[in-house]
Design brief:
five-stranded parallel sheet; 8 strands; binds nickel (II) ion; alpha/beta; 243 residues; three-stranded mixed sheet
Amino acid sequence: MNLRSIILLGILFVAAFVLVYFTSAMNHDSGEKNAVEAERRLKTNQIHYEVKRVALTFDDGPSGIYTEKLLDGLKERNVKATFFVMGENINGNEEIIKRMYDEGHLIGNHTYSHVNLANLSFENACDEINTTNAFVYNLTGYEVEYIRPPFGAWTEKLKSETNMAIVMWNVDPMDWKDQNSDIVSRRIIKNVKNEDIILLHDIFGSSVDAALKVVDELKKKGYTFVRVDELPENQKIVRSEGK
Ligand code: NI
């Protein structure tokens, strides 16, 4: 082998190396572009899904019979909800309250004994609210901020002198009247829209079944389930003017 052949071979070798190097670099580059594009699409879809958010809310519990089934179903589906509990129903169901809190649900107040607060003296109304708040605080260390007053009844004095945010609702499937999970879930799915607050009662087995059906159906339609404290304050979530 003479010098010329060695030089030629050397040049060929370097050329081959350069070719292989750039080809792989280009492939790498386009792979990276694909990954960026995929991420962009994912984000766009996520934004699309985030636009449709709804809150499931459950009043009148906890129920020693049905609430745990509901918590199991929500956990399986990785869904967080809001529970407006009654003080007198916490007795004997303390572990359920702890579980709600530990599993990331929002606990709100539904008075101690399901009274119409507007019919009580201010002191008695405060007792109904504070007793329930204290029960929840003693079990979880969480200071309740939200209240759903039974019958939607609230007063100007409570608004100005308590520190609670009032939560109403947009979708009422009348689950207490028609204790049938198909009827109740259909009413919700038919009427629900973005950022609605759905009213249910976890003291009925049919309502628990309806809620889980609604989760499965609305998830397919791109809905995300949030706690009421994740929704913007609007006419259905009203902050009080107290301290
Ligand atoms: Ni109620």
